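Notes to self, HTH luxR-type domain-containing protein:
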Amino acid sequence: MDPEVITQPVRPRQDPLEQLSPREREVLALIAEGRSNASLAPRLFISEAAVNKHIGDIFSKLDLPVDTEGHRRVLAVLAFLRA
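result:
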């Protein structure tokens, strides 16, 4: 093995969901229930724009690719369900 590889610290794999804030986890849980962005806003007492911001942050933190033909929401829910 390459000596440089051996000297690199080994980092344990972190669950991407651990990067989400409690509010982002709450939003993701509601998405997993099948709720639309429009229905999340009044339920969370925030604007629909704030819901969209949370969802964008979730996608970013879960490192979901932009080019998934509109399936990032499904991929985020699958990550949530696996955890």
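- The chain has a mean pLDDT of 85.
- The chain is about 60% helix and 0% strand.
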